[in-house]
Write a structure and sequence with these properties.
Rossmann fold; 10 strands; two-stranded antiparallel sheet; globular; 2 domains; single chain; 6-stranded parallel β-sheet; alpha/beta; Dehydroquinate synthase-like, alpha domain
Length: about 400
């Protein structure tokens, strides 16, 4: 594995991940896992499509057996605070003691917010006002309900401790305001990775989420707080994920391919979200800036900008963007120009997934908005993890957006 010689070799790594269950039909063991953790009544949190798709919901409810308390199938990609408030009421009505998120990252985010709300008696308006004032929601010191995650996409949010939330008119505000929460106790207590469930997700959704998960591996290698532990998991995960995504792009949809993609997704997110820190970096800051000002899906936004962001990082003098480590992980370590080979490999994977390659082709910001978007990107919290030595300006971020246009 290629490591940068000028990085500080000392590090601190604190990580308390979920119990991982992996493999076809692993959700059959849901009841067993809950019993082992002393949990008795599970409220499944999902979207309406998942909740009414027998191939997805039935294996989960069957796996929960007598520990199924109910199904709350009202989540949406907007991750609305009002939805979480409704979920809290459903949780109380069903006397649940554990939340089981099923579906994409938005359902997991809503489940996390439900857990936070359930630990207090605050009103939706009170919490919405806090989101407006601080951009976050206070996480109580005790009383959080445990969460079990069952992803059906590949975004890789399951081994993390953060969640997004949107407060809007349905919470008493005049306009929509985005925010987020973070706390080590929001790490799921268990995560079930079942390729049979992932196989039920439409290809366009899988492709977009896969790009988001893939970029977690890319960013974890060059982040300012990389460690040998995250280097190992991210490198192996990227190699596995890239192989699987190339096969997916070539048309393979068999379970072996999905298992390989899912295995890579698990590995690239292992260790990225730790108490007080994350390895997510500049590409995810771009994702935030673009999706908060438009309707573009985050994975699609990542796919569009990541080649240009990588080129920019590799071109900056004195910046350690780990081109060698990335090249090794992506199978192009023998290239004469490793930086160019990395950009080409990432672009080919993006194109193989059928994702858009230009900002003008998605419902995102227009060029006259780029300066404001660039300012938001530069002030995003994830920019603190930019590759060592990288000090971008608003004009340089604007230039990346222009090239992506």
């Amino acid at each position: 594995m290629t490591r940068a010689s000028d990085r500080d070799p000392s590090f601190r790594f604190e990580y308390d991940p979920a119990t991982i269950r992996f493999g076809t039909d692993c959700v059959d063991a849901l009841e067993t896992e809950l019993a082992a953790q002393g949990l008795e009544r599970a409220l499944v949190v999902c979207g309406s499509t998942v909740g009414t798709t027998p191939a997805v919901i039935e294996p989960v409810t069957r796996g929960l057996g007598d520990r199924l308390a109910g199904v709350f199938d009202e989540t949406t990609p907007k991750k609305r605070l009002a939805t979480a408030v409704d979920g809290r009421e459903r949780l109380r009505d069903d006397d649940g003691d554990v939340l089981v998120s099923l579906g994409g990252g938005s359902s997991l985010d809503v489940a996390r917010v439900i857990s936070v709300l359930a630990a207090s008696d605050r009103s939706a308006r009170d919490v919405a006002d806090e989101v407006v004032e601080t951009g976050t929601i206070t996480v109580p010191d005790e009383g959080l309900l445990p969460i079990v995650s069952i992803p059906t996409t590949l975004a890789g949010a399951d081994l993390s401790t953060v969640a997004g939330v949107t407060a809007g008119p349905d919470s008493g505000l005049d306009e929509e305001i985005g925010g987020g929460i973070s706390d080590p106790e929001l790490m799921p207590t268990a995560a079930f990775y079942d390729p049979e469930l992932v196989a039920t997700t439409p290809d366009p959704v899988l492709a977009g989420s896969a790009m988001n998960g893939f970029d977690k591996g890319v960013e974890t290698l060059y982040t300012a707080n990389a460690t040998p532990v995250t280097d190992a998991t991210a490198s192996d995960g990227l190699e596995t994920l890239a192989d699987g995504l190339r096969a997916f792009g070539d048309g393979s949809r068999d379970l072996e391919t999905l298992e390989r993609i899912l295995e890579g997704t698990v590995l690239v997110q292992y260790g990225i979200s730790r108490p007080g820190e994350t390895t997510l970096s500049i590409v995810h800051a771009f994702g935030h800036g673009l999706t908060r000002t438009g309707e573009v899906q985050q994975g699609a936004a990542h796919g569009i900008v990541v080649p240009h962001v990588l080129e920019y990082c590799f071109e900056q003098d004195g910046v350690d963007a780990r081109a060698g480590a990335l090249a090794d992980a992506l199978g192009v370590g023998d290239a004469t120009d490793q930086a160019a080979a990395v950009v080409e490999a990432v672009t080919e994977i993006r194109d193989g997934l059928g994702l858009p390659s230009r900002l003008r082709d998605v419902d995102g910001p227009e060029p006259d908005e780029f300066a404001a978007v660039a300012d938001a990107i530069l002030n995003d919290a994830f920019m603190a993890n930019a590759p060592p030595g990288l000090e971008p300006t608003v004009a340089e971020i604007d230039g990346i957006l222009e090239r992506a246009w």
